[in-house]
Structure formats: structure tokens, C-alpha cells
């Protein structure tokens, strides 16, 4: 059995093991024939049919009823994953649902959006988990929500998110600038190659022209040659937190409210209402309970529900029917006396479409011909607002600004930011306002840092209903601000291009001034106080990159006398410090600061120890620096450096070749002019080629200040000591 009550007490021998410690027969209603069973901590296996069997000495009877189990899962977690297909990939995840839920993506207007993919799984606890993805395009469904519905309970949970324009991919000015610079550089290289080719072609044409002029006996100067200048970028979902779920199994449901009855001997009945306020939700209906004690029929009595004034009533029942003349206008068409219970003394009032103005006290007045009685009860109105809308606004203060908004709450709700572990997070700002409908609107903001609370939720709680709505979001690493490779590349290029100009200007203007730093130390020795002080625990700061490592600084204050400072590695060996500074404050206590350079794979695990030599006590702090924080060679920088070295090397080689070619052209031109100065008689022009070779042989003996003789019509120098005769014995021609 699930539960057995016999002999005036519960019997547990033979009980199904799965129900031990989880069942209870509610004995308060046994005298009235009510035998409800409470089952605690409902499980999936509890679902199914139950038989309620009742037996006395001579008779027994039973009935069958069915228990249906349903589970509301966790709040949908919306994860903003990263860029994909020109948009941003958004994933919605939730777990702990039973039975398998329905999942919908909706835009701001409530229209359904098709999902990119959807996956449903079932865990070891037989509860369902769901995951669905969607691609969000810029200017299209940036404001969307993920809604998961339990079809049995007809309840849903929803989380909403908004993604700002700044997170979508766009053309950056850095890329544009880098593209322009690269196009300019390659254009310059192409132009230089073209000009080099054109210059070579023109030089050949000039040389050919000179040869023709020489052949025709004309002379000219190279000064007549032309000079050509060369120009050189759903609502929150809670899981099946089955803490305690009461299930009553009974044949007949009756509600009995106890109250004290004053012992007036002349009283025919007492009107009894609830002691605690009746709580209802805005827009729904409320039933105000009120009954007569002892139970008697109120069908022929006058039942009046009113507030502050007896004449202006909320609802009036008299002479066996409802009376509406004199009813408060705000309640017209919204009230109903439940007549099904009048014969039992129940005079319940139903109010439809609850408004904010319905909150307050109500009087239940019952009168027969000779006697009347009344009681006062209070209606408390509460409003559950919309699902929190989490907006991923933009970058701020090195992180991402996230804003949570919701409206339609009453009374003023409590707002909390929570991380994945449920810890509360302090908000950056919080604003609450009240609209024309007297409902509260709330807006709160938070700065999310990378690797810190990227998985968070916004929870808004109604303290009266003790209900909350929650939306969760996850922000992927790729959306956080980071160093752009295009920016690095452009910076390197600009540094190389303009650095040379700046260095040249600096070297040109540098006057060799030397600067001296004059520091003064206090030479006064303060009287030593009798107090000896241990300072604060060392604060180790990982400052920045320096000299191929990481600069680590250790600081502490409040020491007396001046302490000793040591850096130690994991093995306890002392490490030399880069610098050490000691200062003394107004309270005569010493403060100390020391620095150290930590290299990769060398003393990454180190500690800073500060010792008071008098007390022989020390305080120590340790730190470990992981490999990813050490500077490393950037592939973009290496590739870009190689490209720049090749580009500038090519430009330098081009300039050098232009210069060498100019010199060679000038030398050839001079030799051609020298040859052109030797004029041959017309009778000997046919021997032009022989004379050309002859003159080159003669030029080998050319020495400044030597004697000259005529050989083939040219002045041929000969050495005074050993004159070299001309290789040809032709007679010297007459020189005109």
C-alpha cells in the first residue's frame, strides 16, 4: 500500500518502500468524512492511478483517481555565442521539464521565428532538456524571446534578450585604412617597375640616336638630353525544484474555516471571514469567502457586500435575487454572488478582472428578518509583470553593459542579478517608475567583464505572491572587446613609415642635452617608538609586460621597524628583486614596494615575504602566473614584418639600380663623345671600323703630361721613357 490508516493510527508495515517517509493522512477532516492523502517530494514514478479504499466493520467502498505529474524546468538560458553567417548565433537552453515541452522563438510583436536547430534530450531523472539555436541578423529580430511551455500545466517560462547594433560585424576604419595603405604600396612598386622599364627603353633610344648622329658626322652634348623626373580595415524558467508538492486524494472537497464564536445567547448566527488578507492577481478573478456559523441557508436573507459606505454597495442580494440599483459603477458587470453555496450558509463573492483600485477592505453583511451580522476582510492585489528583457547594450569600461527591463508589477518588486551559482551581483544602476496604471516599471544595469559572471540572470520577485520571473543570458568571449589584428597591422605599418621620418627629424634636431635627476632624501632620524608593528599582508600586483617577461610588484604598509623583504620561488630559494623602495608615512610606519621581472618557464610560482626582525614574524603572499599571460610572437606581426622588409628592400634595390644605370649611361655617353671628336678624311671613312679599334688601342697608352704623336689622324700619347709605337704604320693624315 501507499498509506494505511487502521485502528485509529497509521500503519507502516508493508508500505511500498518508495513512499516511506513521504505520505501523510490529513486527520483534521476525518470527523467530517474527509480522508485526503498528502504525498511529499513528488517524483516522476508517482504518476498514475490511485485507489481510495474505506471500510468499516460491515461495509467497504473504493474509488479510483489519477495523479498526473508535471515539471516546470529551469529558466531559459539565452547564450549569445558569436558571429555566424553574417549575424549572431543565439542559443536557448533549459532543463528539468516533464513531459516534453514545446519551445518557441518570438519577436517583439509575438510572431514566431523559425529556429536554426532544436535538440531534445532526456536525463537520468527522466526529465527533459531542450536546446535550440537561432541566427539573429542586424535590423531584424534583434529583440527576441525564448519561450518554453508545459502543455499539462498550461504554464510557460520565457527569457528575452536584445542585441545592440554595435555587436554585429561591420567594416571598420582600421581595415579600410590598412587596405588603402597596402594598395598604395603595391601601386608604388608597380609604378616603379614601369618607370624603370620605360627609362631603360628611352636610354636605348637615346643611345641609338647618338650613334646615328655620330655616324652622320654630327656632334652634340649630353646637356641637350631631356631630364625626366620620377614620381615615386521566456520568460524565466524554474526547474522541477520538487521541494514539496502536496497532493490531496479525496472524494469530496470541502473548505472549513475555523473562527471564534462569541457566546451571545441571543445570536442566531455569526458571519465569519478569513483572518488573513485574500490575495489575488491583477487581471484575474478573486473570490471573497464568507459563511454563516452555524451553517444555515442564506437563500432568503439579505447579503450585502460593501466597502466604506453601506448604501453604495459592491454587490447586493435581496428577496432571492441580485439587486444592481445603487451599485458602485466601478463594479458593474464584474461581481457575482456564488449561489451554489447559499443553502449551506456560504455567501462567497466573485470579482472579475481585478483592478488596482479593488484593493482594500470589504464588509460582508448578512441580515434576516430580525437579526443581522457582518464581518470585515481585506483584499490584497498583486501584479506579476512581464518577463525580464535582458538587453546586451554595448561596450563600456572594458566590459559589456547589460540592461534588464520589466513592467506591470505591483507592488514594487525586488530586483536581483545572480550568477550561475546563485550568488547576488551588485547592479551598476537601478531605476523604478510608476506608470499611469499605477503599475511599476523597473530597469537595472550591470557591467559584465570577460571571464567574470558571463553567465548571469535577472530575477524580479513579487514579495506578496512570493513568485518571481527570471531571464538568463550568457555572453560568449568573442563579443568582448579585444585587440584587433587589423589595428595591430596598421599600427606597425604606420610606425615603420612615420618612425623613419620621426627618427630622422630627431637625429637632425638633437642637441645632445643631458638631463639629471636630483633626489633628496630626508636625513633626519626620528626617535624610535616603543611600538613594534606588523604591517598589512603583501599585495602582489601583476603590472605589465617588460623585458620579455611580466613585471610583478609587491606592496605592503604599516611596518615598524623597517622590515626585510624577500622574493622566493616554489622551492624557497631567494630571488633577486628588480627594485625596492621604502617610505615612511605620517604615522612613522614603514611602507615598502619591490618589483621583480618574471620570465616564462622560470619562477612563475613565486611569493613575496616581509619579515619584522624584532618580532621574528613575517607575512607572505604567493602568486602563480599562467603561460598565456606572457608575451608571445604574434603571427600577424611576423607576417606583416616580413612583407614590409621585402617591400622596402625591393624599393631600395630599385633606387640603387636606377643610380648604377645612370652612371653607366653617363660613362658610355662620354666615350661616344670622345670618339666623335676624332674627324677622319672622307677618303678614309671606309676604314672607320679599323680606325675605331686603332684608337682604342692608342687610348691604352694615354698618360697625362706625355708626349704626343700622330697615328691615323689622332693625337697619341707616348711615355717619355719607353714610347710605345702605334700598331699601324699608316702615314699621319693632315689635320684640318
How much beta, percentage-wise? 35-45%
User: How are strands sequenced across the largest beta sheet?
Assistant: 11-12-8-7-33-32-28-29
CATH superfamily of the domain at 270-382: Immunoglobulins
* Low-confidence regions: 213-265, 522-530, 678-686, 699-724, 726-730, 732-736
Number-wise, the strands total 43
Mean pLDDT: 78
Indicate the CATH topology of the domain at 270-382: Immunoglobulin-like
Cα-atom radius of gyration: 50 Å
Quaternary structure of the protein:
single chain
Write down the CATH class of the domain at 270-382. Answer: Mainly Beta
Summarize the amount of helix as a percent range. 10-25%
User: Which architecture of the domain at 270-382 would the CATH scheme give at its second level?
Assistant: Sandwich
Amino acid at each position: 500500500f501507499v498509506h494505511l490508516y487502521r485502528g485509529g493510527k497509521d500503519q507502516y508495515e508493508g508500505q511500498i518502500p518508495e513512499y516511506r517517509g513521504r505520505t501523510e493522512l490529513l486527520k483534521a477532516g476525518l470527523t467530517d468524512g474527509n480522508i485526503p492523502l498528502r504525498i511529499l517530494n513528488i517524483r516522476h514514478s508517482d504518476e498514475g492511478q490511485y485507489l481510495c479504499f474505506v471500510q468499516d466493520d460491515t461495509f467497504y467502498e473504493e474509488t479510483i483517481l489519477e495523479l498526473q505529474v508535471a515539471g516546470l524546468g529551469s529558466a531559459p538560458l539565452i547564450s549569445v555565442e558569436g558571429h555566424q553567417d553574417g549575424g549572431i548565433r543565439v542559443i536557448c537552453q533549459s532543463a528539468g521539464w516533464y513531459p516534453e515541452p514545446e519551445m518557441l522563438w518570438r519577436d517583439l510583436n509575438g510572431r514566431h521565428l523559425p529556429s536554426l536547430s532544436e535538440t531534445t534530450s532526456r536525463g537520468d531523472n527522466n526529465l527533459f532538456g531542450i536546446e535550440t539555436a537561432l541566427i539573429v541578423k542586424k535590423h531584424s529580430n534583434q529583440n527576441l524571446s525564448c519561450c518554453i511551455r508545459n502543455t499539462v500545466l498550461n504554464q510557460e517560462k520565457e527569457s528575452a534578450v536584445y542585441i545592440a547594433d554595435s555587436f554585429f560585424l561591420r567594416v571598420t576604419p582600421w581595415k579600410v585604412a590598412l587596405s588603402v595603405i597596402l594598395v598604395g604600396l603595391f601601386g608604388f612598386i608597380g609604378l616603379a617597375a614601369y618607370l624603370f622599364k620605360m627609362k631603360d627603353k628611352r636610354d636605348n633610344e637615346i643611345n641609338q640616336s647618338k650613334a646615328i648622329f655620330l655616324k652622320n658626322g654630327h656632334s652634340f652634348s649630353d646637356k641637350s638630353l631631356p631630364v625626366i623626373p620620377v614620381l615615386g580595415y521566456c520568460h524565466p524558467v524554474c526547474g522541477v525544484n520538487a521541494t514539496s508538492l502536496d497532493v490531496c486524494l479525496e472524494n469530496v472537497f470541502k473548505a472549513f474555516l475555523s473562527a471564534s464564536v462569541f457566546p451571545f445567547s441571543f445570536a442566531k448566527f455569526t458571519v465569519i471571514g478569513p483572518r488573513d488578507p485574500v490575495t489575488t492577481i491583477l487581471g484575474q478573478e478573486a473570490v471573497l469567502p464568507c459563511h454563516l456559523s452555524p451553517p444555515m441557508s442564506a437563500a432568503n436573507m439579505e447579503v450585502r457586500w460593501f466597502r466604506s459606505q453601506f448604501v453604495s454597495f459592491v454587490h447586493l442580494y435581496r428577496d432571492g435575487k441580485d439587486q444592481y440599483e445603487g451599485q458602485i459603477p466601478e463594479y458593474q458587470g464584474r461581481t457575482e454572488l456564488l449561489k451554489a453555496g447559499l443553502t449551506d450558509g456560504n455567501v462567497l463573492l466573485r470579482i472579475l478582472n481585478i483592478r488596482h483600485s479593488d484593493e482594500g477592505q470589504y464588509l460582508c453583511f448578512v441580515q434576516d428578518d430580525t437579526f443581522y451580522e457582518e464581518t470585515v476582510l481585506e483584499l490584497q492585489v498583486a501584479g506579476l509583470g512581464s518577463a525580464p528583457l535582458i538587453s546586451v547594450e554595448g561596450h563600456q569600461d572594458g566590459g559589456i553593459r547589460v540592461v534588464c527591463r520589466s513592467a506591470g508589477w505591483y507592488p514594487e518588486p525586488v530586483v536581483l542579478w545572480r550568477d550561475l551559482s546563485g550568488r547576488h551581483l551588485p547592479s551598476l544602476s537601478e531605476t523604478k517608475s510608476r506608470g499611469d496604471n499605477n503599475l511599476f516599471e523597473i530597469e537595472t544595469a550591470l557591467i559584465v567583464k570577460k571571464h567574470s559572471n558571463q553567465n548571469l540572470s535577472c530575477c524580479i520577485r513579487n514579495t506578496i505572491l512570493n513568485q518571481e520571473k527570471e531571464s538568463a543570458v550568457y555572453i560568449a568571449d568573442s563579443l568582448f572587446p579585444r585587440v584587433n589584428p587589423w589595428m595591430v597591422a596598421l599600427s606597425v605599418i604606420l610606425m615603420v613609415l612615420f618612425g623613419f621620418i620621426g627618427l630622422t627629424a630627431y637625429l637632425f634636431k638633437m642637441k645632445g642635452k643631458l638631463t639629471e635627476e636630483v633626489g633628496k632624501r630626508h636625513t633626519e632620524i626620528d626617535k624610535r617608538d616603543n611600538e613594534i608593528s606588523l604591517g598589512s599582508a603583501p599585495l602582489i600586483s601583476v603590472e605589465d609586460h617588460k623585458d620579455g617577461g611580466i613585471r610583478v610588484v609587491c606592496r605592503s604598509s604599516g611596518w615598524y621597524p623597517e622590515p626585510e623583504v624577500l622574493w622566493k620561488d616554489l622551492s624557497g630559494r631567494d630571488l633577486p628583486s628588480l627594485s625596492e623602495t621604502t617610505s615612511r608615512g605620517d604615522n612613522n610606519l614603514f611602507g615598502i614596494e619591490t618589483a621583480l621581472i618574471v620570465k616564462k618557464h622560470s619562477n612563475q610560482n613565486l611569493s613575496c615575504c616581509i619579515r619584522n626582525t624584532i618580532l621574528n614574524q613575517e607575512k607572505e603572499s604567493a602568486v602563480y602566473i599562467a603561460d598565456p599571460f606572457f608575451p608571445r610572437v604574434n603571427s600577424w606581426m611576423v607576417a606583416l614584418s616580413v612583407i614590409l622588409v621585402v617591400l622596402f628592400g625591393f624599393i631600395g634595390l630599385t633606387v640603387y639600380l636606377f643610380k648604377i644605370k645612370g652612371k653607366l649611361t653617363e660613362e658610355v655617353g662620354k666615350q661616344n663623345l670622345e670618339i666623335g671628336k676624332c674627324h677622319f678624311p672622307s677618303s678614309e671613312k671606309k676604314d672607320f671600323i679599323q680606325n675605331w679599334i686603332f684608337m682604342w688601342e692608342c687610348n691604352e697608352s694615354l698618360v697625362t703630361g706625355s708626349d704626343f704623336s700622330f697615328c691615323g689622324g689622332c693625337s697619341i700619347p707616348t711615355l717619355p721613357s719607353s714610347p710605345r709605337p702605334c700598331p699601324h704604320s699608316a702615314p699621319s693624315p693632315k689635320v684640318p
